[in-house]
Amino acid sequence: MQVYLVGGAVRDTLLHHPVVERDYVVVGATVKDMLDRGFRQVGKDFPVFLHPKTGEEYALARTERKAGQGYTGFVCEAGADVTLEEDLQRRDLTINAMAQDADGTIIDPYKGQQDLEARLLRHVSDAFVEDPLRVLRVARFAARYHQYGFDIAPQTLSLMRSISESGELAALSPERVWKETSRALMEPHPQVFFTVLRRAHAMQDWFAELEALWGVPNPARWHPEIDTGVHTMMVLEQSARLNATLPVRYAALVHDLGKGLTPPQHWPSHRGHEKSGLKAIKAFSDRLKVPNECRDLALLVGEFHTHVHKALQLKPATVLKVLNRCDAWRKPQRFEELLLACTADARGRTGFEQTPYPQAAFFRRALSAAAAVDVQQIIADGHQGKAIRDKLEQARIAAIAALNDAD
């Protein structure tokens, strides 16, 4: 029975990248051997165990054989006779197919160290094409390691395109697609995930509304980068630079889907794209089964980002309308996330990356001033029923107007 550290922990140690978790593979053991040593079995499709003290994952060495469609269509075989090399061979990329023994020796049968040095994401074997999820995984790794200069090996990109063109991506479950997408969104360079998927011809099945943005022009005066797809990737990049949460990054990704619906004869104008894009954001979110907090913020950003951009020109009553529609009173943190997404949108343009965004500060002040209005005093003044709401609205509008006068 031999135990090896495998996969990401070996890769990231060699790359001097933070190691998040450690996984181990056990060679020459059976399920009974593991249970006798106090390990707790958790794997259903193949034997995975939790260490009785550390809680780290230990898996029996196994092989995989394609037997059906999609990423679940595999027959796994684990046994004491499966070698370490056989276990490593089933992995996706060479940089993920290395192991380390207890003495620190690296076992690298598929030249993962060589590819680390060359900054290449390269498949281990032609069996790569058997699992369509690997298209998304490779794109995610590209987003994670972009800062180190990694790119995809031409042969691997060719296999990714073969998978995309086979139709097998459509067989993936929404849950798995969202898991990979959400993890990619939280990487240091999330925009790379989507640029890689475009290179791999892998957008149509799950990200069609997003793919439709490339080739759609914006007015050059406001968008020197012109292309809406390029702008969207720049906004996503800015959201990462702002260290934004997942809901903010998701909102940044889909905020302009309405521009993909603008009739070409109206280009480069996109009047009304904010409202027209809401249906597309809902469809996109439903397809990927996006969590409610991500979808809800995305819908608000989609509808109101132009209002926020024009904050300094809006009438006080319109400012209050935005605060009301966004439920900023009960959900101030979500409103703050909306402002952060709008900041990323404003900076996600060529030449505007470092531009100050006073609109966000103005809306924060407006929210604070309007929230400070004392509704109890309105009641104490003798107002009742609908009159209370009317007086509250008037007082809040006056408070916001006073900010303009002060400026």
Spatial order of the strands forming the largest sheet: 3-4-5-2-1-8-9
CATH topology of the domain at 1-118, by name, is Beta Polymerase, domain 2
What proportion of the residues is helical, as a percent range?
40-55%
Taken in chain order, the helices and strands follow as EHEHEEEEEHEEHEHEHHHHHHHHHHHHH
Given the structure, what is the number of helices? 18
Rg computed from alpha carbons, rounded to a whole number of angstroms: 26 Å
Structural class: alpha+beta
Broad CATH class of the domain at 1-118: Alpha Beta
The end-to-end distance, rounded to whole angstroms, is 74 Å
User: What percent strand?
Assistant: 5-15%
By CATH, the superfamily of the domain at 1-118 comes out as Beta Polymerase, domain 2
What's the structural blueprint in terms of helices and strands?
Layout: E1 2-6, H1 8-15, E2 23-27, H2 31-36, E3 40-41, E4 48-50, E5 57-60, E6 62-66, E7 74-78, H3 84-89, E8 99-100, E9 106-107, H4 112-118, E10 120-121, H5 133-145, E11 151-152, H6 154-166, H7 174-185, H8 191-199, H9 208-211, H10 228-241, H11 246-254, H12 273-288, H13 292-309, H14 316-325, H15 332-347, H16 358-371, H17 375-380, H18 386-406
Parallel strand pairs: 2-5, 10-11
Antiparallel strand pairs: 1-2, 1-8, 3-4, 4-5, 6-7, 8-9
Helix pairs in contact: 5-7, 5-8, 8-10, 10-11, 10-15, 11-13, 11-15, 12-13, 13-15, 14-18, 15-16, 16-18
Summary of the model, kept short:
This protein is an alpha+beta fold and 407 residues long. Among the domains are: 1-118, 2-Layer Sandwich (Beta Polymerase, domain 2), CATH 3.30.460.10; 119-203, Hydrophobic Seed Protein (Orthogonal Bundle), CATH 1.10.110.30.
